[in-house]
Amino acid sequence: MLTDYPELVEFLPCASPDEWINWALENEATLLTDHAHCEKKAASTAMSLMYRYVDRENLLHKMSRLAREELLHFEQVLKIMRNRGIQYEHMTAARYADGLRKHIRTHEPARLVDTLIIGAFVEARSCERFAALVPHLDDELAKFYQSLLKSEARHFKDYLTLAEEYAGHPIDDRVQFFRDLEHQLIIEPDEEFRMHSGPPKAA
């Protein structure tokens, strides 16, 4: 499935561990609940960028579209949860996003560039995980996650393109910095399952 997105595969440092996939299949309610939270957070991040960087026309255009799509995905996940009798409730966040964002530089335009690079990793990893889960899911969920691949891959590309545009210089070194961090966050074990968690800690 990801063969249609070679740039995305090359961008990520690794595939999701099989242990995470098995963990996800054992925790469908948590998977869907956290997925809903992720879609809502993604929309919020896009809106936050629109409010902070009002003079960046290309960013405003791409983030407006992204926010609308993420909120639609949020509504779609909620519908699936409702049909399955799963209650949408508060969840603690995975260490994944914070593990990346705590390294954002504080001066501009470096702050914006780092935020956009992290956005690219979050969207790329989401796409990769949807694709990894599809072969193992029931027909409804498999069809839904398959339908998300194209938009998530485009969101990854939008974030990366914007980061390159606003940096004013090559960003390969900074991308590699966050790639190394992302690799560790994906392969290191976690105590709680989340959409972006690592594999489960051994009992």
UniProtKB/TrEMBL annotation:
A GO BP term, please? tRNA modification
Sorted alphabetically, which Gene3D superfamilies does this protein's record hold? 1.20.1260.10
Under SUPFAM superfamilies, the record lists: Ferritin-like
| Source organism, top-level taxon | Bacteria
Which one of the record's GO molecular function terms can you name? tRNA 2-(methylsulfanyl)-N(6)-isopentenyladenosine(37) hydroxylase activity
InterPro entries per the record? Ferritin-like, Ferritin-like_SF, tRNA-Hydrxlase_MiaE
The cross-references to Pfam families, in alphabetical order and at most eight, read: MiaE (PF06175)
Which PANTHER family is this protein grouped with? TRNA 2-(METHYLSULFANYL)-N(6)-ISOPENTENYLADENOSINE(37) HYDROXYLASE, TRNA-(MS[2]IO[6]A)-HYDROXYLASE
> What protein name is recorded for this chain?
tRNA-(Ms[2]io[6]A)-hydroxylase
Q: Which organism is it from?
A: Marinomonas piezotolerans
